[in-house]
Design goal:
With 102 residues, the chain is an all-alpha fold. It has helices spanning 16-23, 58-97. The chain has 2 helices and no strands.
């Protein structure tokens, strides 16, 4: 009977791995927010949302962080560029659909 019990649980900032662990074995329902349209360019405490393994030390850690920061900086630029292009495309499409009077 205990299997029929339930609890509502919200996890923010959870990794994809954690969501799979929670879902496996029906520990949590199979309802999760799609990550398709969620931008990952925001900074949390001045850092991007990626994991730095504790095992990395010294120069390797510095190179790892610098590489991922550069990748996320590029992602951020591309995301903004694509959003601008999308807005322009949307405006052009609306203008084409709007009947001209006169």
């Amino acid at each position: 009977m205990a299997q029929l019990g339930g609890v509502h649980l919200a996890c923010e900032g959870a990794s994809n791995i954690l969501t799979k662990v929670l879902e496996w074995g029906r520990l949590a329902a199979y309802l999760e927010q799609s990550t398709r349209y969620i931008p990952y360019d925001d900074l949390v405490d001045g850092r991007y949302r990626y994991h730095v393994p504790r095992e990395l030390e010294g120069d390797l850690r510095s190179r790892y962080v610098a590489t991922l920061d550069a990748m996320f900086d590029t992602y951020r630029e591309l995301l903004r560029s694509s959003a601008s292009i999308s807005r322009i495309d949307s405006l052009v499409t609306r203008r084409r659909r709007t009947p001209r009077t006169g």
